[in-house]
Amino acid sequence: MYRILQLQLQTRIEELLMERYGIALANLVVELPPKIEFGEMALPVAFELAKRLKKAPRAIAQELQSELAATAGVASVEIAGAGYLNVKLDRAATVKRMAADEHAVVGGGGFRLVEHTSINPNKAAHVGHLRNAILGDSFARMLKKDEYKPGWETGVQNYIDNTGVQVADIVVAITTLKGMSLDDVRGWLSELIETNTRLDYACWDLYAAVSQWYEADPVQAAARKQLRLDTLHAIEAGGNDTAEIAEAIASGVLRRHLETMERLGIEYDFLPRESEILHLHFWETARALMVEKGVLYLETAGKNKGCWVMRRAISEAAGVELVEGGPDEDAKILVRSNGTVTYVGKDIAYHLWKYGLLGKDFGYAKFHEYATHVCWISTVLGEDPHPSFGHADAIYNVIDSRQDDPQMQVKEALRSLGYVAEADRYTHLNYAFVGLTARTAEDLGYVLSEEDKAKNFIEVSGRKGFGVKADDLIDRMIGAARKEVDSRHPELEDAERAEIAEAIGVGALRFFLLRFTRNTIIAFDYQDALAFDGETGPYAQYAAVRAANIFRKAGVNAEDALAGVAGLDLAAMLEGEEGTSVWEVWLTASRLSLVLEQAIAAAEPAILARYAFTLAQQFNNFYHRHHILTETDEARKMLLLATAAVARRELVRVLGWLGIRVPSAM
RNA sequence: GCGCCCGUAGCUCAGCUGGAUAGAGCGGCAGCCUCCGAAGCUGUAGGUCAGAAGUUCGAAUCUUCUCGGGCGCACCA
Fold this sequence. Notes:
This protein is an alpha/beta fold. Among the domains are: about 1-90, 2-Layer Sandwich (Gyrase A, domain 2); about 160-265, no CATH class; about 280-340, no CATH class; about 535-655, Orthogonal Bundle (Isoleucyl-tRNA Synthetase, Domain 1). The protein has 26 helices and 15 strands. The strands form five sheets. It has a four-stranded parallel sheet with strand order 5-4-12-13, with helices on both faces. The model is unreliable at about 315-325 (pLDDT under 50). The structure holds one RNA strand.
């Protein structure tokens, strides 16, 4: 609602500036004043104009004041400070429109593809992967159509690198360290399923073991590295036992990853795999395109002689001087002199597919059934009919910022091929990695050097088997919540207590990983994550639960409370100190669509997490100050009920976009 | 060496495209459960926004430099 009024005001000002001064400003700032006494919208526009009109800001503000005050929905306009135009809204009118759920439309046309998670299927997921998946899942929820907004057509995919070295490492561990054959592996896998043992956990240890093993014996090191390479090539080639073992393990681990993510409410539509990119020869097609357009060329001199290379993507700031006529030594190699393609090369082909520019498609097969939809996986042949996943209009790749350079390279390839618009609509939704605090690392049993202890964070390492496994973390979060729920609600059925604990544990975890902005390195700490007080998920959930309890006790439902506001004379009840404290809840609630738009534009779910906390805090203040059930004035009671209803309604919505459910009780 | 990111209260972090007295949580201290649930609320102490210069009516925010920290720059994926 705030957004609607803001746009209306901006339009009005633009008209006024044009009429009176013949000026069009590029962007008109309408901000929230620091204090409610200054009104609900502040315009510093007079400062902007002062120079151009050679007039004092205050004088300009005075000229605009009365005209602005006549705008619909505006109660009054005041001039403050050196020339701020402070707008006070018509509180009663705004409240009534909000009660009727009037709000700005968020959404647009086109298909948006969000890619996240993308964990190598060779070991258990850890906290870092959770940050990725939770960011991506929340962002997809922000974009998708739901009861609040039309949103955008959105597809979620999870890229599976099932033929990489990391999978090869696991295969080496299984075949060489454990001496298993393909049949042994099949037996082992079904045994794990029967005993309900986590395959990804077993692989976690195997991966650490084989990483040590490569280095353990200096005499054998070269031979072992060769074995690793041969294994990788066998997997890539396919049609042999080694490849089948890899497939069995990778699929098994992938299924575990899907289970882990499903615990957090994270689902996917499609799982494109590297094996299909290989076997369907995506790269060969991309290569032909790139050579044809002159983007990819054979280097004939210098250190990269014999490689196929492309110009390196560089930021605008850094200019690289090329020696006229000489080889571009800084070029990015896409095909090595031995003819094999690099990671970036394959990624370029894959991204051409995402935009429907490759002229090729995957085969599709059903892989997993969720409650509401099917998750498909890439195959060579595939089933029909199948949904379409390419042909995106905009793509978002949730990838660690350590991949900034290769991501820029992919974007550069699109641009060089002439797909400038596609390159512009390619968002690398990057984020800083997750480390561990020294305290948590030591809790996990790792011995730290003095140097490590002095650091702000300690980096996790799959090769060392060092990190916080995702399922362990989820277990602990839910466990801690369960303990609280058990002591607070012994009267509830076991199943309900379990459900509540799950919502709280997951909510706390998701909120914890979302409240940091993307470029903040998170030093993960168990103690911090398990805190359920203050700026946390449970705090926001608790506010929503309290609001719901009021309706239960009052015997009124929230919809009726909101509908009841329409016939009331609200103006007097929203004025004065008491009234303002009620109005502030509505004001904060009114900013929902604006905040969502900002969060989408910045691809930053943290903005929503922060807003959810602010709204919850606002509600808690209100809750404490105004006792609703004992209110004797019927009209006032109705307004207070509606206030609780609006706070709850918007709180449930934001939390929904963050993937956080509101439990039945807490 | 080159590129990217960061430095804000004791700790962990916000601070939107420059705008009013720099905010929040945790922790500290002092309070609030015969009143809708205390996973809550109220009050209080705590900052030379790393440093310097510049642009501007106005800078935590933009520019340059310095200092300190992190990450990335392979014919690895």
